[in-house]
Design goal:
With 134 residues, the protein is mainly β. The protein has one helix at 2-14, and strands at 27-36, 41-43, 47-51, 55-60, 65-74, 84-91, 96-103, 108-113, 123-133. The protein has a single domain, classed as Beta Barrel (Lipocalin), CATH 2.40.128.
């Protein structure tokens, strides 16, 4: 019992949830920094992403919301506390793109890429500071 208590306290102290992203879970990702990858420019705004098997919702700090339909999922990430990657094929009704979530040993990022679509309009990298179950 003492061992289980120590393990529980250790995992609680980590502050990082132990769950995965296969596209089936509903997760909320909070971003504190955003980089415009086309212009290598830092954007001062915060965003929250809600991901699920059918939809990705992006909410700015002023509650402006964009929603994307998920048309495919590439990969599976069993534990978001460890390095991994998953990519969502997404559509906003007019254009298609990808939303790639990746954790390296240094950081978690979300890359929203609509550069290959008809409008070629944006590539943004979001630096994630927290993730939790929705």
């Amino acid at each position: 019992m003492k061992f289980l208590t120590i393990v529980f306290l250790y995992l609680s102290a980590l502050g990082t949830p132990l769950f995965g992203q296969s596209g089936r879970e509903n997760l909320t990702w909070s971003a504190s920094k955003i980089v415009d990858e086309k212009n290598n420019r830092l954007i001062d705004n915060s965003y929250v992403f809600n991901t699920s098997v059918t939809r990705v919702t992006m909410i700015q700090k002023n509650n402006y919301t964009l929603s994307f339909d998920v048309t495919g999922v590439d990969g599976s990430w069993t534990d978001v506390a460890t390095p991994g990657k998953i990519a969502f094929a997404i559509s906003d009704g007019d254009d298609t793109g990808t939303l790639t979530i990746q954790r390296s040993t240094k950081e978690i990022t979300i890359v929203l890429d609509f550069s290959q679509g008809a409008s070629g309009r944006l590539v943004r990298k979001f630096i994630i500071n927290s993730v939790q179950r929705s």
